[in-house]
User: What shape does this take?
Amino acid sequence: MSSMTEDAMTLWNWPLATAQWSSDMIEMMMGAQRVVAARLPTIVSAMQNPIAADHVELNRMVSEKVGAFNASGKSVTAASDAVQRAANANARALGRMAGGSVLWPHEWMRLAESNLAAMATMAALPTATLAPLQSGVKANDKRLRG
Assistant: This one.
């Protein structure tokens, strides 16, 4: 769980993080092209002679993608949970106010904290979802080049 200061800085730095994400996305796509090009001979060889195929590399192609997309999906789930918690807190507070109750300053602060955390999580979501995919592409590109 991040602090309010960290959440505020995430929102403050969001434009820079977006620019960095764009650069990272382009870098990842270029690396993915090199990885696919390096792996195509292995795939063609497997299609021509399945018994003599490099099953370790072929298995790695699938398991790495599944792992990276799984980690990426967990980021989406965590962001969804943060937004859901904030929405539930907002709905409870609105229900109390509609019923005539007064929200005290500490309750307003708690609402602000949960909403700030949800906004920061959503602002950081593109980077969080790209990170596992990008690291896998970088590792494969490095391994397959040398």
